[in-house]
Amino acid sequence: MSPQAGRRCSFGRRQGGHMLRRVLLIVVMLWSGATYAAEITDSAGRIVQVPDHVARVLPAGPPAAVLLAALAPDLMIGWPMPLADAARPLLAPGAANLPQIPRVTGHEDVSAAIKPLKPDLIVDYGTISARYADLAQATQERTGVPTILLDGSLVKSSDMIRRLGALLHREQRAETLARFAEALLSLPPPANHPRVLYARGAAGLLAAAPDSDLTEVFRLLGWQVVAPDGNGTFRPTTIDKIRKIDPDVLVFSEPAVRETLAHDDAWKAVRAVSEGHVIIAPSLPFGWIENPPSINRLLGLAWLEGSDPETLAALANAIVYGHVLTPAEHRAVLAPLQP
Predict the structure, then answer these.
(1) Residue 53: helix, strand or coil by DSSP?
(2) pLDDT tens-digit profile of 37-69?
(3) Which of 3.40.50.1980, 3.30.300.30, 3.20.20.120, 3.40.50.450 is the CATH number of 195-337?
(4) Which residue in 18, 49, 58, 157 has a CA-CA distance of 20 to 30 Å to 2?
């Protein structure tokens, strides 16, 4: 056999393998008894057959969970991450009381644990990349459950909300959320464009990479995100490295950083600290800057554009999370902003 013929045979076997997997997937879906009435193309370009009636939706990761909790908490099976005790009272009861479930987007194959939950649909929401597209496809093949991947970028949030709302027959709720997102995204950006370093951790020494999804809020503001050289989404750093990078503004995700800055004299050598340009972002019920990188980031965008945080917190919690904050809850949400 010629080398060319060998390559053709190998390609043919690969095609045959892909076709066999598709046939097996269809058989599994038919055996489940579901009625597949919609064929959609997700954000990764994958064509997915989705049931006409969806009663149980499994969020693949934290970003999808926040989106579903806002859009259709009655259809959501559970949280794929620990939900902070302080966050639960700030959510609608339908979302607050849900259990923790396996995380599809983690490092382990949780297909066997997903099947007993009997989801009708699995939704992932976030980065569109080969990795997550392959994960969605693999999850669908292993579980027999339709799995879609939606673009989690903030600028597309209203479109994704409407798409998912139509799929779940929650069009009216989706329109409310989508218009709220559009209103926040349409706010004029600030005139200044500082260099900003964003960090996690009680010590404030896990700096976010400039090009990650977690710093999208700053990029939309026109701020320049800076970080020490390195790999990964978060880069361990030191106070001296931050001093040398010399950001105009420091933004931290952990309220505990305030105590660190007050008692560690080394931070006083950092210009942003000595000039008082330090921001600690609210984190309840979810982070205003990220953590997770979902629609909760709209609050951080509007806040840093100059919106009154007190009004923003009250309105957003009622509109997005379906819970009107009590005065005590309102103070708890905004506690990181207190001097």
Answers:
(1) coil
(2) 688 999 999 999 999 899 999 999 999 999 999
(3) 3.40.50.1980
(4) 18
